[in-house]
Please model this.
Amino acid sequence: MCIQSFFLSVKGGIILSNNNGFTLLEVLIAMSIIFMLMTTIIPITSLLERERTVLSERRMFSSKLHDELQPFLWNDLQLPSSHSDVINLINVTFSFTYEGQYIKGCVNWENARKKSETICLYGLR
Model:
């Protein structure tokens, strides 16, 4: 005995016994939802990862700048001074100058978004 599923059309009262088009429509709608999710989630994930890298670089370089500034605060080293270094395959430039009674230390690098970024810290002797 074969069991068939029947659908009653609301408009005309016609009983439909062929549901192959309905299955195809379900698959097309499901695939379009999946593709829509993929096209929104993948770029957002990529953007978040890049921003996480930028923030990580800022934290790391501001900490390194703090460490590089300490000898200028505690010892009488010659100012202005500048030197370059490579940290985690990124070229950074440290510069130290007097600004009034403060010693200004700055670090400059190109971040993950390919933009030049500078952080400055000030200290008193």
In short: Strands lie at 7-8, 15-16, 81-87, 90-99, 102-110, 116-123. The chain has one helix and six strands.
